[in-house]
Structures are given as C-alpha cells and as structure tokens.
Specification:
heterodimer; A: Beta-Lactamase; Beta-Lactamase; 6-stranded mixed beta sheet; 24 helices; 40% helix; B: 263 residues; Rossmann fold; 15% strand
C-alpha cells in the first residue's frame, strides 16, 4: 500500500512540493521514510549493525567544488540516488490495540499500522544526495551516531559553557543531536545553535544554495533524509530556518520546532520590521539586531527539547486549589490601568493564572505558543532579578506586526520564583503598570498568597492511585466555550525511573515518537499500544482529549485499559485543580471606581486607542 | 496601611546607556548588590529604585542591543543624569556612544548631567585590577595621570576588536584613553549646546571603572547622585506650585534643547 508513494518519490531524495500546496498531504518518500525510520526508534543501535555501503565519493567531488552560489549548481543538477538496503531490524514489538471495550473510537488505525510495521522490517531506504556530502563534510551528516542520551547528559548540564565558541570542525560539534541554523535569503548566517555563525558561513551558503536551486524550478525544498539525519527546511519570509537532527523526530515535529524559533525571532523584532529591513537591504546582517538574543534562542531550543508543552502546543499550569487560583485571579483583575491587556502570574516557570482584557478575549485568543515564548523570555532574562523590566515584545500569533510592552517583575525576591507579567499596549505606561504591581503585591501580602503559592507543586503520579502507571500527559479538547482560549495539558512530575536527565529525555523521545504516529499526516492513528524495551506506552486521541501514558513494561493490555479508565476518572475529579477552568477577564475601559486608583483618570478612550491600532 | 507601601514616587531619573557588553548591568549590580556576576544580555530596560538619603532615585538599566534602540528615548525622557558607558578595551563602544546613543538623550531634562564611563578598567589598568570592592571607593581619580602613560599604540587604530577576551589576570591593550573620553565629553556638551565653562568639568564627569573589582563604581554613582540633588529640589518646588508633573516638564525639556540654559 505504501509502494506507490515510494515510486513517486524515488526520483528525488529531496522532498519537494509546489509552493502553493505547501500544506498538501506530503505523501512522498520522505514521509514514508520518516515513518520507516521511526519504527526502529526504540532500538537505534540496530541500524549501525547493518553492513551498508553508500557510495559517496563521486558526490564529494562535485560538492567540494561548489561554492555557495546557485549558478554553479544549475550547471550540474543535483542528482539523487536511492538505495535500498537490507537490514536486520530487531523485532519491534509494536502493535495496535485491536479493540477496546472501554473506548468508543479504537478500530481505526489498527490495520494501517500493522501494514506499516511489515514494511519497516523488510528494509530501509537510504537517500543520498549530492549536497548531503558537503553537509557531511562540514560535519552535519556524520557517520558516528550521537546517542540522544549522551547528548542530553553532556551538553545540557554545563549550562554556562558558551556554545558560540565551539570548534565547528570538531567531532563533538558533529555529535550534537539537533542543530538549528537560521540564515537570510541572501545566505547570510543569522543564528546557529552550536558554534559561531561566522565559522559556519560556508555551510549556510550550501544550505541556501539548496533552497535557491529547488526554488528556481518553482518548488520548495522541505527536507532531506540521510541515514542518520533529517534535514528540515522552513522558509518564512526573508528567513530560512534549517534543522539537522539525529533525534528521530518526525519532519512535522522538527518543522514545528523551527516555527517556534521563527516566532521567537518575530517576538523580538516583529515580522513587519524584518520584512521591511530585508526589502530595504537584501544582504542585511540581521545579527546586528539579534546580537545578545542568542541566549533566548538557545534557551528556547533547550526548552523545546525538554518540555513537552511545545510538542503538545499546550500550556502546563501549576496545580492549585481552585479557590486559591480564583483569589489570585481576582487580585489581578482588580489591579488594572488603561491599555493593560494581559496579566499573567507565573510560578516555577508554570502558569498560575492569566487574566485578559475583555475586548481582547472577544476578538482573539491567546495562543499557547505565544505564552511559551513569554515564559522563555522570562527564563532567559532573569539575570538581574531585583529590577522591574520593561520591554517591547511581539506575540507573533496574536499579531506578528505589533509590539506589546511587557512589565516583568518578581514578587518574591530574592528567591524569584513567582513572576508577574503585565502586558500593555502603551509604550509609555511603565509607571502606571508598575503601580498595578504595587497593588497586586499589597493584595498578595494581605492574603498571604505567596506562602500559599510556595506550597503549590506539581503532583506525583502515585496520587492517581493506578499501579503500573509511571507517567502521563493529558490534553483535553472538550473545554467549554468560556475557556476555549488556551489549550492546556496536565502531567505529573517525572519520577523514577525517569529522574535522571538521560531517562527523562528517553521518555520524552518515546512520547515524541507516539505523537508523530498519532499526528502522522499520511496515516494518523487514534490509538497506539506500544511495547518498548523498558516500558509500555499507550497513546490515545479522541474528539475530547489527547492522552499519552507510560506503564511499566509488564503491564497487560487489559490492565492498561482499566488503568486509563481510572486515570480519566481521576483527572475529571481533579479538573478544577489541574487546569485554569474559567479564566477571568477585566475591562480596562475606565470604570469610575477603579480608574481613580489607576492614576490616569482622564483617559476615557484609551482602551480604544490602545488596541484598535493593534487589531 | 496601604498608603505606606504605595509606590515611592521616584524623585529623579538616572539612565545607563551604552553599547551591548560594555557592562552597564554589571556596574549597577556591583553598586546595588556589591557583587560581580555573569549577566545575561538585558532585555528592554530594567528599572531600579535607589534610596539616597531622603530621596528616591530611579535608575534605568537599558539594553545596549540595537534591537531595543527605539525604546531609548522613552527611557531617557525626563532624565536628570545619563551615564554613557563604554568599554576601555573596545574603541567601537566609545564610537557607538556618539553615533547611536547621544541622540537618545534629546528627551532628557534640559539640565541633564552627562557622565562618560569607561568600564572594564581592570583589564587594562593594574591598579583597577588590584582594587577590591571596599577600597574601590577610596581610590581617587588621580589615576587619570597614569593613564596617559598607558600604551597608546592601539588607541590610534579605530578597529573594533573581536570580543575582548577577559582572561583573568591578563592585561589587555587599552583602546580608549582617558583623553578620548574627555574629548567625547566636550563633544557631548557641544551637541547639547552647552557652554563648557558653565557646565560640569570633563575631568569630574569622566570615569574609569571596573564592575569586576568594584574600582570607582561607588564613586561614580555617588558623585552623580550628589550632583542631581539640586535637580530634585527644584523639581519638588515646581511640584508644589503645580500638581501636574512629568509630561509637562519633559515637553518643555525637549523643546528647550537648543537654549543653553544652566542653573
């Protein structure tokens, strides 16, 4: 059943699709490959054992002579070779749950995945292409496979070692699990996750050459697959983002991550100003404007790797007794000033509560991705925590072309775990907004909120009371209308055996794998029962929720299903504590009793001026 | 009760300006926390309130990045003192003050005080290097004399260095001499249309500091705070006359720029 697609795709190892149909179901070889590849995921080592010889010498010859200009490539069109290699794939005991008594939407997906499974055992495709050789030469597509676990352990712990100074010719640089590059359409380097962009300018030149070459025939390059790496391209306006990953994530997921990187850049500069700059000067060096922001992008990429919120595109809020959350919301609701549009309270990098201006709520909703960017900004800019920060920030999904002005202040110095974030549309409103913080602080002291917040913490999976259940992630869809505006998910702490960084990463990788199967564009599944080496996972998506669970390896299918029923019941019971149920609103249209306290009492229309210009 | 904890209205505003990585945040951090630590590039601007005797001085620590350039004039609005910071090991950082930051001060008060501060002196000056936190205050400013004997070879070449490697203990070439700073101060006055004679003397307003060792840091801030006191008092008097404050004043300030008024 997959054959047709393969035939069609074989002509090109590069996955290409026509510009207008970027969202077409990418039923090409590349997708299939990613699926096949993913099958081997739990036992990545296996692939190494296969004796595969991929001829690359002629390829090398071509590319070493290719500088970063597309004319040269035009002369020698990129030819691609596809080889089918015999591999011994260890039996991956993956199977779909054939039926499920306690559920209503199971049947679908069973056969599909079974067929898929067969194919993965039969062989493996290796796509080589000319340009890859150059990439490899630069070290991106290098043989020695990096273990994701090793990477997580060694690269993330020394947080203060700058990756900028890394030697890009060193083996260790090549071993990075996920590289991310940002370049301008003129091929100018803008950002590299590891190593300095300057040292990588020739590599980025080749990337741009690939993009332009494919573009010259009215196509868009989307991805390149090699044996060990997936190279994903994302073009956004004048920016080109490239991810080179050995993480076994799906192309879709990697592209989603690149999109986050793009949004983070937009959040600092706005889309409008980026396009303006490049319209004006095609070879502008955007690093001038982003200088100093590398840490924010680094931080984002580390979060993307370690925090499932990005994968689920949902917000993780701190579990809190609903009475306490309500009282905090009320405090925020009362401390307002004209042009204030969002009041957000954060503890331990998790959302406590969020209050929105009424008009904003009616017109649009706050997207989880925007909240993620805000949280990342706070995390990356908390160096000097005693002060009150006032900074422009754009929420790209809310409006990619306009700035909000963010007031960021910690409420509990010197611990600095509780952070208040107030967003205004008025550049000059700092003092008025700072006054709101004073009020909030006061009210929180009066209600002893800080010590109550300090007690709040994430929960243990043991509280669910289901044996064999080790961890889960639950994202509801069935939220009533009045709190539709923010997707959330809940998840317990990662506890033993997932307490070490390596194991956490391994579990997340399993979740990512499950997620990629569920959300596969070619064959989406509704239910997967996946027996991995050291645990058993069950992922299930319905019209009401999306659920990923992790069980001990010896659990039986029947057991897992009863466990999930129990888990769902528990979540229902705890709902008020786990989620922000009814996010309150306020109106910053002056209200006689409140505006007098706000300091600026004579601005009846300020609300309108404020965001009519925004929307 | 709430009246007490109500925000203390800042009496006067001091703004730190300068290119990224010159050490603005570190200077302020050294002064307020008595510590030197790695900082992350500032986002936007950070607001601090400093008690100075009976007065509240607000200090804006701004981001040096070009990205936030548009905000600079907002931070400077109504400022009573502006600290223009450069890095003594980086010629370009001094040049940037004139090219990029000086125009931001157009919105500052007409009687605004300007200080030109060369940070990272510990990298070039053995004295600043040895100077510890405590005796940093006691260091007098006679070191200007010695600076002139410092290697001036490199200062003539205006090439921006790569990032100054702060290898501890290593003495780097000083790219910006004290004289360069004095000259810049003169040009600032000219830009502002101020008479050199009636303004504060350059020798008094040009500092070399080290946020790392604390050298001259307290001197810098405390000199400035003392100098802005008259401005506070005048502002208070004005307040008694008319209750509306800020907006009015800064409009006047920006309009009056060319008038060379001195108090």
């Amino acid at each position: 059943m997959e054959r047709d697609n393969h035939q069609e795709g074989e002509a090109q190892g590069v996955k290409i699709c026509d510009p207008p149909s970027e969202s077409n179901p990418p039923e090409t070889l590349a997708t299939s490959l990613s699926l096949l590849g993913n099958h081997m995921f739990p036992e990545p080592v296996v692939r190494k054992d296969s004796t595969t010889v991929v001829k690359e010498e002629p390829v090398d010859l071509h590319l070493s002579a290719v500088p970063a200009q597309e004319q040269n490539l035009d002369a020698e069109p990129i030819s691609t070779q596809i080889k089918m290699l015999e591999t011994d794939t260890a039996e991956n005991q993956e199977q779909e749950c054939p039926n499920n008594e306690s559920t209503d939407t199971v049947d679908r997906g069973t056969e599909d995945a079974a067929g898929d499974n067969d194919q993965s055992d039969s062989g493996e495709f290796v796509v080589t292409m000319l340009a890859k050789a150059k990439l490899e030469e630069q070290g991106i597509g290098v043989k020695g496979r990096s273990s994701p676990l090793l990477e997580a352990g060694t690269q993330e712990s020394p947080a203060f070692v700058s990756h900028r100074d890394e030697d890009v010719t060193a083996e260790s640089w090549r071993q990075h699990r996920k590289h991310v590059f940002v370049l301008s359409e003129a091929g100018k380097p803008i950002y590299s996750r590891y190593g300095s962009e300057e040292a990588l300018s020739s590599t980025m030149g080749v990337m741009m050459a690939l993009v332009s070459f494919v573009q010259s025939s009215d196509n868009i390059i989307r991805s390149v697959y090699s044996e060990e790496h997936t190279v994903v391209f994302l073009q956004k306006g004048p920016l080109v983002l490239v991810c080179v990953s050995s993480s076994q994530q799906s192309e879709q997921q990697l592209r989603g991550e690149l999109l986050y990187v793009y949004y983070q850049i937009i959040s600092m500069l706005t889309q409008a100003s980026i396009s303006r700059i490049f319209e004006h000067k095609k070879n502008y060096d955007l690093r001038r404007l982003l200088a100093g922001s590398e840490k924010i992008l680094d931080g984002l990429l580390n979060l993307v790797d370690s925090d499932p919120s990005f994968l689920l595109v949902a917000i993780h809020c701190l579990p809190l007794a609903s009475s306490l959350r309500d009282s905090l919301s009320q405090i925020l609701q009362k401390a307002i000033t004209p042009n204030l549009v969002f009041s957000i309270l954060i503890a331990k990098n998790q959302l406590l509560t969020i209050v929105q201006e009424k008009t904003v709520i009616e017109d649009t909703r706050l997207e989880p991705a925007d909240v993620h960017l805000l949280l990342n900004l706070i995390g990356a800019s908390s160096a000097f925590q005693a002060g009150e920060i006032w900074t422009p920030i754009c929420l790209p999904l809310f409006n990619p072309d306009c700035y909000f002005y963010a007031y960021i202040s910690y409420l509990d110095p010197p611990e600095c775990t509780v952070c208040l974030l107030l967003l205004s549309t008025d550049k000059e409103a700092f003092y008025a907004v700072a006054e709101c913080k004073r009020k909030i602080e006061e009210a929180m002291v009066a209600q002893n909120s800080l010590s109550l917040i300090a007690k709040a913490q994430s929960y243990s999976v043991s509280q669910v009371g289901v044996s064999d259940l080790r961890h889960f992630m639950y994202k509801p869809f069935d939220v009533p209308d009045n709190y539709r505006q923010l997707s959330q998910f809940t998840s317990p702490e990662m506890e033993a055996p997932y307490s070490s960084e390596e194991e956490k990463m391994r579990l997340l990788d399993l979740y990512r794998y499950m997620h990629s199967r569920i959300h596969s564009t070619s064959r989406p599944l509704k239910l997967i029962y996946h027996v991995a080496e050291r645990e058993t996972l069950l992922a299930w998506v319905t019209s009401k929720f999306e659920l990923y669970t992790c069980f001990s390896p010896l659990v039986t299918k029947a057991c897992a299903i009863t466990a999930i029923t129990k888990l769902l019941r528990w979540i229902k019971k705890e709902e008020d504590r786990l989620f922000i149920r009814y996010p309150p609103k306020y109106s910053t249209t002056p209200n006689p009793s409140k505006s007098s306290r706000g300091g600026k009492s004579d601005q009846p229309d300020s609300t309108d001026n404020g965001f009519l210009s925004l929307l | 009760m709430p009246e007490v904890s109500k925000m203390k209205k800042p009496d006067v505003k001091v703004v730190l300006l300068g290119d990224m990585n010159v050490g603005k945040t570190s200077l302020l951090h050294r002064y307020t926390e008595r510590k030197f630590k790695d900082t992350i590039s500032t986002v936007g601007g950070a607001f601090f309130l400093k008690q100075w005797g009976p007065y509240n001085i607000s200090i804006w620590d701004t981001a040096g990045r070009e990205q936030f350039h548009g905000l600079g004039s907002m931070y400077c609005r109504g400022a009573a003192a502006v600290i223009l910071t450069y890095d003594v090991t980086n010629w370009q950082s001094l040049a940037e003050l004139e090219e990029r930051f000086l125009s931001l001060t157009d919105t500052a008060n007409h009687d605004c005080i300007y200080a030109v501060v060369g940070n990272k002196a510990d990298l070039t000056d053995p004295k600043a290097h040895l100077s510890q936190d405590l005796d940093g205050v006691s260091q007098d400013q006679t070191e200007c004399e010695e600076d002139r004997t410092e290697p001036q070879v490199l200062s003539a070449c205006p090439t921006p260095p790569a990032s100054p490697a702060s290898l501890s203990g290593m003495i780097l070439h000083k790219q910006v001499t004290h004289e360069d700073a004095l000259a810049l101060y003169g040009r600032i006055l000219r830009y502002k249309g101020l008479e050199e004679k009636s303004s504060l003397p350059a020798e008094k307003m040009c500092f070399e500091t080290s946020a790392k060792t604390g050298y001259n840091v307290d001197t810098l801030f405390e000199t400035l705070f003392d100098l802005v006191l008259p401005s506070i008092l005048r502002k208070r008097n004005e307040n008694q006359e008319s209750p509306t404050v800020d907006l009015e004043e800064c409009r006047v300030a920006s309009g009056k720029r060319t008038k060379s008024t001195c108090c």
